[in-house]
Each structure stands twice: as structure tokens, then as C-alpha cells.
Amino acid sequence: MGDCIFCKIANGEIPSRTVYEDEEFRAILDLGPATKGHTLILPKEHFADFFELPEEKAHHLMDVAKKLAPKLVSRLHADGLNIIQNNGAAAGQTVMHYHLHLIPRYENDGANLLWTPGKMSDEELDEVLKTLE
Ligand code: AMP
Ligand code: ZN
Questions:
Q1: Contact at 8 Å (CB) between 99 and 64?
Q2: Are the C-beta atoms of 9 and 16 separated by less than 8 Å?
Q3: pLDDT tens-digit profile of 46-67?
Q4: Which of 51, 74, 85, 93 has its CA 20 to 30 A from that of 103?
Q5: pTM
Q6: Closest atom of ligand 1 to CA, residue 84
């Protein structure tokens, strides 16, 4: 993926504010942070999204997230943390190299990350359930 900026960042060809690195992943500070400490975990190998990420890498990714999330909260004195991951343009993905967002949250930080609850009838919910059986 010669023109993928996150490939270059993950592999150290473009400098980044790296908060964690191992043989498979790099975690960096987001350049347009939703809040203080907004961190992205990127695989060094190119995968477009969650669907392409192999299962073993997904497990390793969760190990990295389990290490970093509590560190972000404690060191930055955050009150909470969102873990977000967008897949596809329709879901808000803008960089087509897999990345997991760790977003520390602070009381009244004004970050607008949550959705408005929708409405669905019992019949519609049952129909969805049937589709997933
Ligand atoms: P998404 O919308 O889930 O694809 O998220 C892309 C994220 O990457 C956004 O939060 C951007 O602020 C961030 N971003 C884009 N380019 C860079 C970069 N060069 N270094 C660090 N973060 C970046
Ligand atoms: Zn890439």
C-alpha cells in the first residue's frame, strides 16, 4: 500500500507521537484529537478495516488496548474513555487503514461522540433477530 499514510506512520517512515509500539502495532496521538489524549492503535501491516483484520491480530490488538486504556485514564486524569472503530465511509471511516480510537473523556468535555437513541417496533426488532439467526 504505497500511498497509505497510516502504513507509513505505523512503520515509522513518517514521524508520529508514538505512545506504544511492538512488532505488530503502533499507537499514536491523533493529530485532530476529539479530546486530550485521543490515541489511535494501528497495525503495521495494511488492513482496510475490521473485516480484513485477522483474528489473531484482533486478539493482540485487544491486549494493546487493555494496556493503553487504563494508562490514558490514569495519567491524564480522565473520567471515562470511549473505544470507537469506524468501518467504511458510511460508518465515518476516513482513513482506510484499520485503526482503533481510544478517546479519554472528561466531565463536560463537549466531545460529540454518542448517538441519539432511535425507535423500532417489536415486529421490526423480531425481524432483525430472525435475519441474524
Ligand atoms: P476515522 O474517521 O475513524 O478514519 O479516523 C481517522 C482519524 O485519523 C481522525 O481522528 C484523524 O484526526 C486522524 N488522523 C488523520 N491523519 C492523521 C495523521 N497523519 N496523524 C495522526 N492522526 C491522523
Ligand atoms: Zn495502510
A1: no
A2: yes
A3: 999 999 999 999 999 999 999 9
A4: 51
A5: 0.96
A6: 3
